[in-house]
Amino acid sequence: MTVFFNLAKIGIFFLLADNCYICLPGVRSWLPHGSGTGGKWDAPVQNRGVMSRKYGIESPAVPAGTEEMPYAASDGFGQSQTGSQDSAQLPPMAFDGIRAGFPSPAQDYMRPCIDLNRELVRHPAATFYGRVVGDSMIDAGVEEGDILVIDKSIEASEGDMCVCFVDGEFTLKYISFRDPSPSASATSAVRTASAVWLLPANDSYPPIRIENPDSFIVWGVVTYVIKKTYRR
Amino acid sequence: MYALVDCNNFFVSCERVFRPGLEGKAVVVLSNNDGCVVARSNESKAMGIKMGTPFYQIRDMVRSGVLIACSSNYTLYGDLSSRVMSILADAVPKIEIYSVDEAFLCMSGMEMDRIAVICRDLVSRVKKWVGIPVSIGVAPTKTLAKVASHFAKRYPGYRGVCYVDTDEKRLKALSLTPISDVWGIGRKLSPRMERQGIRTALDFAERPFDWVKREYMLSGVRTWTELNGRIGVGEELPEKRKSICTSRSFAEMTSDAAEIASRVSDFAAKCAQKLRQEHSAAGKVSVFLYTNRFRDDLPQYSPCASVVLPVAANSAQEIVSAARRGLDTIFRPEYMYKKAGVIVDDLVDSDSVQIPIFDYDMDLRRRQDRISEVMDKVNSSGRNLVRLAAQRSGDYTDGIRCDYRSRRYSTALDEIIEVK
User: Fold this and answer.
1) Cys-Cys link to A123, which of A153, B17, B141, B386 (CB 3.0-4.6 A)?
2) pLDDT at A110 > cutoff 90
């Protein structure tokens, strides 16, 4: 389908032959990478398909037929507003575009730029972001305003920093299945299945013991904290 | 075998992902402009709230806190939908996305055991990864898979997956399915079928082939074949759409000609933009107006006018001017209008537009195409920075009512959840 779109676009640009050089979006789709790198270059051309391929990075065998979604791309769903989905879009580079002159010696060594989406987001379909409010995790270096990368697909285990939903709000804490009080650890690390503690990283907050597991959700595990250091 | 994966109460479930406090409460999602109910949680279904109930009829319940209303947040729903779909696409070799909250998984050639493992895993994975509960129906045909998914959704005992994989189960399931619930029958055909004594899907499946063919032609035969366990609905090819509609209700009723004209221009320009995005051109532009049908005390008027274009077009200038011409023929100042819209149809591929031999200004056409292209590029940020003078400033959705809109938690960095 991508090939079809590209051909169609080339067709259009040939119709407008004398001005195709101004069509940067078109130039992109002529690049040989159009179908290989998670489809980022094709993003402006398609609608839903971009997402399924973007999220389908782990399995290279995203089936044909998922690329063009059959339902109507009406306003909200289409997300086809150009550029809105291809956040990691890079400027078009002339990999193959140089027609005259000496070929670039770097050509064989070209690698895609570092893509933080790829590095920091292991499960794109399950990754959401959160903003830190308050200072309950200050001793872990997590301050108000930091951005949390939250992966919902991970099963929380002892000591993970988690976003939990308790008493009607999201809270950021270390999760623990052991009683943190000194007397309890002295006896033995009794691990009762129903007992969960949420441990802050700030001495002025007490650990929270979850009494009723039904009113408590581990919403996701924090995998990275993004902090802005530049002051402007 | 096909599996139909259907997200339970999808829009409500999307809202609950980021507001887990809504779990277990009666929630409804309202249509654009907070007009009527488009999605309900099980709790609000149990309260007797129907699809399409106008908002003013439930406003008191919302005020008193018995019911929680959410304005529709299609940006959020669209993002969560593509997350769900990508998980489904990773699990099987082939999927066919049927709507924002449904997809068929093609599982031909797989052992039943393996299908069962995949389906069970998908139910828990989609719930854990995205937070959306899904139901799965597995059957030899798509129509039966739909039937099975209804059972999976209705009875918790299935734990989200229902199989109609033997003839015995098929007959049992069909006998419990009202004919109006069958995919491809719907509300339009079911009254006629009920008059003919067909109450359940089984009644229909047991009619002889010749009778079905005579009474309901091809579409009936297709459904009948599918209900009898043989594939009648092939794989849907992603076709170009046959028409595109852009319409919105106004926040307040209006009879102001200039206001309505600029609204209609916005809708027409949006249609033109959608046409260009899918490389189509329209041969016909229609405009429609609605007065408020819930106000019996006011005179009602809902006209529609179509303008046939001599040459199929997709530039904002041509679509908007055609829409304005259409509007001029139907607009009457004595009515209070609540809603307007523009439909473009007779769509053709923009590369294969039939061009008349005489009287055609090819240069003008080229210039318009270039202008459109530049406009699209400038407007690619999603904001309407460059527009026709006939349009309003701002986005065409500005000014619509969304008093209970949740944040775009997953697509806008300044609207993400706050964690204490």
Assistant:
1) A153
2) no
Statement to judge: residues A15 and A102 lie in one domain: yes
The Cα–Cα gap between A131 and B340 comes to: 40
Residue entry with tokens 């052991």? A178
For residues A212 and A150, state if they share a domain. yes
Same domain? For B145 and B263 the reply is no
Tell whether A168 is within 8 A of chain B (Cβ).
yes
Question: CB contact, 8 Å: B70 with chain A?
Answer: no
B291 φ/ψ angles, rounded to the nearest 5 degrees: -90, 175
ipTM > 0.85 (yes/no): no
Which residues does chain B have with pLDDT short of 70?
234-241, 357-359, 381-383, 394-400
Determine the structural domain holding residue B129 and report its residue range: 77-227
The answer to the question of residue A232 being in a domain is: no
Query: Band of the pLDDT at A16, cuts 50, 70, 90?
Result: very low
The answer to whether residues A50 and A97 belong to one domain is: yes
Task: Identify whether B108 is part of a domain.
Answer: yes
CB B275 within 8 A of CB B282: yes
The CATH number that applies at residue B38 is 3.40.1170.60
Residues in B closer than 8 angstroms to A125, CB to CB, are: 83-84, 86-87, 129-130
User: Which residues lie below 8 Å from residue A74, measured CB to CB, with a gap of 6+?
Assistant: none
Q: How far is B168 from chain A (nearest CA, A)?
A: 33
Which of A69, A89, A114 finishes a domain? A114
Check residue B81 and give its pLDDT: 96
Q: What is the pLDDT of residue B420?
A: 93
Asked if pLDDT for residue A13 goes beyond 90, the answer is no
B293 and B169 in a single domain? The answer is: no
Interchain CB contact of B93 with A (< 8 Å): yes
C-alpha B245/C-alpha B368 separation (Å) is 22
Active-site choice (A173, A183, A194, A228)? A173
Mean pLDDT (chain A) is: 68
Grade residue A217 by pLDDT with cuts at 50, 70 and 90. very high
Judged by average pLDDT, the poorest of A25-34, A166-175, B12-21, B232-241 is A25-34
Which tokens sit at B117? 């493992």
> Domain with B322 in it: what CATH number?
3.30.1490.100
Query: Is A173 a catalytic site residue?
Result: yes
Provide the 10 A C-beta neighbour count for residue B94: 16
The domain tally of chain B equals 3
Residue span of the structural domain in which A16 resides = 2-114
